[in-house]
Amino acid sequence: MNIKWTLFAALGLLVACNSDKDPSQTEYLDTGVSGEGEGEGEGEGEGDCEVEVANLTPEPGAVGIYYRDIFEVTFDEDASGLSPVASLLDAAGVDVGVSMAFDDTGFKAALTPGSPLEANTEYTLTVDVCQDSSSVAFTTSEYGASLGIAGSELAGNTYNFSLGDAEYTEPAGLGPVLASFLTEPLLIGMSTASDTELHILGTQGVEESGSISPNPAYDIWDFGNAALEGAYFQSSATNIELGYDCAVIPIYDFQLEGTFAADGSSIGGGSATGLGDSRYMGCLIGAGSDPAALCNYAAAVGFTCEVCPDGNPYCLTIEAWFLPAEVVDGVSLSLDG
Description:
mainly beta; Immunoglobulin-like; 3 helices; 21 strands; 5-stranded antiparallel beta sheet; 8-stranded antiparallel β-barrel; single chain; 2 domains; 43% strand
């Protein structure tokens, strides 16, 4: 497929979508509202308060919800001054606590559990505002359970984080563009491991004839040691460099987190953040070596590049969420080559 025209098509779609921006594309502001708020409809008489919940996530009856997820509620009007009340009950009816933080429109709020949820557990999330009450029941996934193996058994395991299948939430709206060229496997390996600590390595992989292996054209990245908290880990921030076709893509302060399945066979809830340098990506869209090419396209759909660590204005904040990363059989990363 022609890379240039694929990217043009994705950008054209983004221009159309961004002509009517959704309030969800704004930043959340912590208002301190929580399940222990002072009540509903504060500041207005009950008869005058007609705000309702327009949408509440996750979907009713959803299964496989990650135990560290943050949920969202959308109201049909600005509800930020009404002190809506949120609760999150487990199957026994115990409220585990949830805080609410509105975005700057007042229409949408992030709902953050007071602590990570239990794995394989049913919960009910409820939001009350004015005379309206909305609830959804959902069940968490297997991730979040304690490891059923010794931490040392993770040593030597390498996991495939699929860049092409990831959901890119930052830069907002440019996810389809990133997914169109970040398609090679991202391999993350446990060099050493114990019950409390991991030494994490990474590299870019290659898939040939259904088999995945490290790409010898790329270095092994050393993320250093990370605490293993139950089955959860978060790597240190490390500079990496991805490659695609004609371009190299430096990513500064790349940081990865996730949770091992109880048997260590996969990592769920994997996410990554970093500052991507777009200056070498002009060739992907037929703009040659112009370092500002991708930033110019980003500006056309309402996004502005950021300043890179070296002072040049060609960077974009990247946030990606991965499908469960499975162990790659027969692959073990090492700094010794």
